[in-house]
Amino acid sequence: MATSNPLVQLHQLGQSIWLDDIGKKMLNDGSLAKLIKDDCVAGVTSNPAILAHSITGDPLYAQAIKDLLPKVKSSMEIYEALAIDDLQRAADLFRPLYDKEEGKDGFVSLEVSPHLAFDSEGSVKDARRLWGNLNRGNAFIKIPGTEAGIGAIRQVIADGINVNVTLLFSPERYRAVALAYIEGLEQRVAARKPVDRVASVASFFLSRIDSNVDPKLDELAASGQAAAKGLRGQAAIANAARAYTIYQELIASPRWQALAKAGARPQRLLWASTSTKDKAYSPIKYVEELIGPNTVNTAPLDTINAYRQTGKPQLSLQRHLGQWQGIQDGLNKLGIDLEEVARQLEEEAVRKFVEPFDKLQGWLEERRGK
């Protein structure tokens, strides 16, 4: 169907747009339902920072917290009850889409405690508990793609729990978690368990990569390294393109094809951290440059609104697939190792989730104490 809405056109090109936000206001006033209906928004992602911002900043939570206080024993129980209620309501809004698309889209995501990012056994235990409490088939449990997370992802997929692998910055780490997904599915097939409704996405973070690399390039350019200026703003897109080539290799492999015959679904790449941090770049840079079939882009509301107004959808990801190696080589010559950048960003990202999570627990504990 012909449409002038760029967000709907993205859907027609095979890319799913998800909202990187959740809160009672959008659930109560119908704005989330409107995004689903008018803009083909096909899912919701959340993280500890998003939930902390909503719970502490939206007065609609005050009564819910007051009602919970006599029933709970800790701030963590308050937090989980609030998060699960919001995400259950969102999942129910997306359920018709999930059913219509036979489990391809229509998901919500809830993350394990950020304190478990480097604890494989703890992540598995928390994922199982949250999955049971959330009690929605069109949900993901988010597990960070750290080294410790790889084993947790494998086990949770083998359990039949949908997983959103988060905090990915390295294409090689993405390869490892994609193989963990495959191994988890193979365990289910070997045990004669169904795989047709087990779903996963791999959330590859973008803007934080350029925010780390660009200042290094600026310093090099200022010191006379002329090549540095031309590489500004290209590291994140090149990294994403490399990850997509790995995705293509994996789904073309005989190993994956055997799983596909059993009904398994590919683990889609999800472009995350897509709000532009540098005002020199277009506010829709990380949407416009990475449009490809069978991918997901999760974006905050401001980015979604900007794309609705100015987006020009076309299959743009393909043109970057032949360029990532040259960009990576150019960065290497300047002494910038994207794998080292990824290691730094992973550590920072875990900390950036732990800090608001702990601050929220303190804020809730104050209310519980009163």
How would you portray this structure in words?
This protein has 370 residues and is of the alpha/beta class. It is 59% helix and 11% strand. It contains 18 helices and eight strands. An eight-stranded parallel beta barrel has the order 1-2-3-4-5-6-7-8, surrounded by ten helices. Helix 8 links the parallel strand 4 (139-144) and strand 5. Helix 8 (147-158) packs parallel to helix 9 (171-190) and helix 12 packs across helix 17. It is globular and about 65 Å long. The mean pLDDT is 96.
Features:
single chain, 370 residues, alpha/beta, TIM Barrel, eight-stranded parallel beta barrel, 8 strands, 59% helix, globular
Provide a compact summary of the structure.
The protein has 18 helices and eight strands. The chain is α/β, with parallel strands linked by helices and 370 residues long.
Task: Compile the SSE list and pairings.
Layout: H1 6-12, E1 15-19, H2 24-28, H3 31-39, E2 41-44, H4 48-57, H5 61-68, H6 75-100, E3 107-111, H7 120-134, E4 139-144, H8 147-158, E5 163-168, H9 171-190, E6 200-205, H10 207-222, H11 226-230, H12 235-252, H13 254-261, E7 268-272, H14 285-288, E8 295-299, H15 301-310, H16 317-320, H17 324-333, H18 338-369
Parallel strand pairs: 1-2, 1-8, 2-3, 3-4, 4-5, 5-6, 6-7, 7-8
Helix pairs in contact: 4-18, 6-18, 7-8, 8-9, 9-12, 12-17
Biggest sheet descriptor: 8 strands, parallel, barrel
Order of helices and strands: HEHHEHHHEHEHEHEHHHHEHEHHHH
Structural class: alpha/beta
The figure for the number of domains is 1
What is the CATH domain class? Alpha Beta
Kindly report how far apart the N and C termini lie: 56 Å
The proportion of residues forming helix, as a percent range, comes to 55-70%
CATH topology (level 3) name: TIM Barrel
CATH architecture: Alpha-Beta Barrel
